[in-house]
Write a structure and sequence with these properties.
The complex is a heterodimer of chains A (250) and B (219). Chain A is of the alpha/beta class and 250 residues long. Chain A has helices at 37-45, 76-83, 101-111, 117-130, 146-158, 176-192, 204-210, 228-231, 238-248; strands at 2-8, 11-17, 26-30, 52-54, 56-57, 60-61, 64-67, 70-73, 86-89, 164-168, 196-200, 213-218, 221-226. Chain A has a domain at 94-161: ABC transporter ATPase  like domain (ABC transporter ATPase like fold, Up-down Bundle). A 6-stranded mixed β-sheet of chain A has the order 9-10-11-3-12-13, sandwiched between helices. In chain A, a hairpin with a 2-residue loop joins strand 1 (2-8) and strand 2 (11-17). In chain A, helix 3 packs across helix 4, helix 3 runs parallel beside helix 5 and helix 4 (117-130) packs across helix 5 (146-158). The mean pLDDT of chain A is 88. Chain B is mainly α. Chain B contains 9 helices and no strands. In chain B, helix 2 packs across helix 5 (89-114) and helix 8 (173-184) runs antiparallel to helix 9 (188-218). The longest helix of chain B is centred in the first third of the chain and has 34 residues, at 14-47. The model of chain B has no long low-confidence stretch (mean pLDDT 92). Classes of the chains: A alpha/beta (250), B mainly alpha (219). Chain A binds chain B through residues 45-47, 80, 83-84, 86-88, 90, 92-98, 107-108, 111-112, 142, 153, 156-157, 160, and chain B through 117, 119-120, 122-123, 125-130, 133, 137-138, 141-142, 145, 219.
């Protein structure tokens, strides 16, 4: 992402952000609510079109095409192409409520990747087993706990084998005792896959476990960034110190 | 002169009334079908925000909702034929009912579609599902859970309101009751029996819709 700015009316939520994530890199984004960190993920997913700047994912621009060395604005079709490399897990799960766990995962396999019903079923069963839901394939979201629903959502995003996975406060809507199971799944993924990850979270220990780089974001700006050892254990910025103190005393 | 209810006479009219009921049911069935299909067309046309088309559809829906069904039927039945559009009474009635209720149905669909959480759209977009699939398999099924009980109530009101078709000479229940009344000078029995027939059908139907409401509400 380069010089990406996002405004809603006169409010600037993300201001001239320059952010690049390398293949395999795990980036955690922390910061207070309303700081714009969720917007960064929504921009990276292509759910919002930036007011300024450009975003490139795996060689494809999200909202632009390159012609004769110049960047020209492009529409939804180009965005669709670029989004293929990205997967996103949402705070509110956003599972399809009228489909079973299995159907939620096979839906993109059959209708985006065009796998046969059988291949889709096998891959979905694999993925759901990997997130610990082998025995819940035919449950609907309403029959699952929040933690289980979120794990289905993770399996669903993994189905398309994205190059970058985005996790947007994925445990914020969960009961405290269900947070662990979801974080464990992500931790496992972080350590075993080559996907790049961008993770917006308030779970500081978790962030320091998995992140190669931590970004402290506030008021539309990067306040501080670096390895977890620096940003989380030995922050330089007073704003980061203050934020971490508030979170740890919670 | 005192009025005497005549049970024998009342039951004697039952076969004629049931003939009328057939038309009532036909009008309700095909009228509902037409209303549900057209309503969805109006709703999608409005939500698609196509220039010119969407505002026109909106105007049309407001027009249909803002004028009495009776006048719409009169236009279809008495005035259109002078411009060369002539249809039998029952068909005219079905079209009239269908169009009138489609305007209301479109609002129900619209509310249902707008009631589908944004997150469903965003998840579909993030997964890259084709737009047709998103509408057909994700959004509309969820909108229908909301719409179906309401549309069920529409069927019941249409069933009762189809009595208005007697004014354009359709011999449905009330039309038959009126004819019996005119021929025998006894109105109370046939009209009462007709009302009872309406009740016998609409009451269980209403219970059924309530059951449906409870089921979709709980899920």
């Amino acid at each position: 992402m380069r010089d990406v700015t996002m405004r809603y009316g006169s409010r600037t939520v993300v201001d001239s952000l320059l952010l690049s994530v390398k293949p395999r890199e795990k980036v955690a984004i922390i910061g207070p609510s309303g700081s714009g960190k969720t917007t960064i993920l929504r921009l990276a997913m292509g759910l919002e079109r930036p007011s300024e700047g450009w975003i490139r994912i795996d060689g494809n621009y999200l909202w632009h095409v390159e012609r004769n060395g110049a960047l020209l604005p492009a529409g939804e079709q180009q965005a669709r192409r670029a989004r293929r490399a990205v997967g996103m897990v949402f705070q509110q799960f956003n599972l399809f409520p009228h489909m079973t766990a299995m159907q939620n995962v096979t839906e993109p396999l059959v209708h985006v990747l065009r796998l046969s019903k059988k291949d889709a079923h096998d891959r979905a069963a694999d993925l759901l087993t990997r997130v610990g839901l082998a025995t819940h394939l035919d449950h609907r979201p309403a029959q699952l706990s929040g933690g289980q629903q979120q794990r289905v959502a993770i399996a669903r995003s993994l189905a398309l084998r994205p190059k970058v996975m985005l996790f947007d406060e994925v445990t914020s809507a969960l009961d405290p005792e269900l947070v662990g199971e979801v974080l464990n799944v992500i931790r496992d993924l972080a350590h075993t896959t080559s996907m790049a990850m961008m993770i917006v979270t308030h779970e500081i220990t978790f962030a320091s476990d998995i992140a190669d780089r931590v970004i402290m974001f506030d008021h539309g700006h990067v306040v501080e960034e670096g390895t977890p050892d620096v940003v989380l254990r030995n922050p330089q910025s007073p704003r980061t110190k203050q934020f971490l103190k508030a979170i740890l005393e919670r | 002169m005192t009025f005497q209810w005549d049970w024998g006479f009342a039951f004697q009219q039952l076969p004629t009334l049931l003939q009328g009921l057939v038309f009532t049911l036909e009008a309700t069935f095909f009228g509902s079908l037409l209303a549900f299909v057209l309503g969805l067309v109006w709703a999608l046309a409005r939500l698609a925000e196509v220039p010119v088309v969407s505002p026109l559809v909106r105007l049309w829906v407001e027009f249909v909702r803002g004028t009495p069904l009776l006048i719409q039927l009169y236009f279809l039945f008495f005035i259109f034929p002078s411009y060369g559009v002539t249809l039998p009474a029952l068909e005219t009635g079905i079209i009239g009912l269908g169009i009138y209720y489609s305007a209301y149905a479109s609002e129900v669909y619209r509310a249902g579609i707008e009631g589908v959480p944004r997150g469903q759209w965003e998840a579909s977009l993030a997964l890259g599902l084709p737009l047709r699939r998103v509408w057909g398999r994700i959004v509309l099924p969820q909108a229908m859970r909301f719409a179906v009980p309401v549309l069920g109530n529409f069927v019941i009101s249409m069933f009762k309101e189809s009595a208005i078709l007697s004014t354009i000479s359709v011999l449905e229940l009330i039309g038959q009751a009126n004819i019996i009344g005119a021929e025998t000078a006894r109105y109370v029995e046939p009209l009462t029996m007709a009302a009872l027939i309406f009740l016998v059908i609409s009451y269980p139907a209403a219970r059924l819709v309530r059951l449906l409401e409870a089921r979709t509400g709980a899920a």
